[in-house]
Amino acid sequence: MKNVLGVILARAGSEGLPGKHLKTLLGKPVIAYTFDHALAARRMTKVVVSSDCPVIRQLGRACGFQTIDRPAMLSTGDASVQDVMLHALHEVESSGDFQAEGLVVLYGNVPVRGHGVIDRAIELLESTGCDSVRSFCPVGKWHPAWMSKLDGDRVTALEPGSIHRRQDLTPLFLHDGAVVAVSRASMLRGPANPTDPHAFFGVDRRGVQTEMGETVEIDHPRDLYWAEAVLRDLMSS
Question: How many domains does the chain fold into?
């Protein structure tokens, strides 16, 4: 895959933790870690930062990334990743000197990613010719077989059964936000399917597995403490 466009997504607003991308984590902004991950990846040809925040764009330019001023209509909590990625693709390709064969979504609020996970996703996308690749971690004890519904104080099992050992559960996985890689053709499914915000995942969807705790997203103040603990552990090992 000759040209792979990485897009770091970082809007200023957040319902859970406003300004989360600029929160300080071990002496630097949360988003700086995603910048480091992007710079360390080998398979992305070009990386841009899409944001409505001038401070974030300034930090991105200082790291050598092209920045995209995201319009207000794409900077709300209702805006889809698909639409934001299509906007970034159009902005980058409007000059006429670059055309992406693949695209990578990198969320700016993920300061902890497994080593090499970005390149692994791109390599799987290329080797299989699939539509999309996402990173997935095991759900562990948060398994649907152990979940219940509450009607007042009355408990109803979501999946009635008697499984009591974790190792007997059917393995299930959750997208952990570390990386999303899609082909150009799959990305362009978006305009043809405007009511489906996940159309860009395509039909042939693949995954790379990560470990529990390998990825940390910042969406709540307590996530900063968890990310700091994980980063300190990584630095000491």
Answer: 1
Report the alpha-carbon distance of residue 48 to residue 183 in Å, rounded. 17
Is the residue at 152 inside a domain?
no
- pTM given for the model: 0.94
pLDDT band per the 50, 70, 90 thresholds, residue 106: very high
Give the sheet arrangement for strand 132-138, strand by strand. 66-69, 46-51, 4-9, 102-107, 173-183, 132-138, 205-209
Q: Is residue 142 assigned to a domain?
A: no
Q: Tell me, yes or no, whether 163 lies in a domain.
A: no
- CA-to-CA distance for 229 and 140, rounded, in angstroms? 20
Sign of CA dihedral 106, 76, 175, 167: positive
Domain, as residue range, for 27: 4-137+174-236
Q: Is residue 114 part of a domain?
A: yes
The pLDDT tens digits of the residues spanning 159-199 come to: 888 788 888 889 999 999 999 999 999 999 999 988 999 99
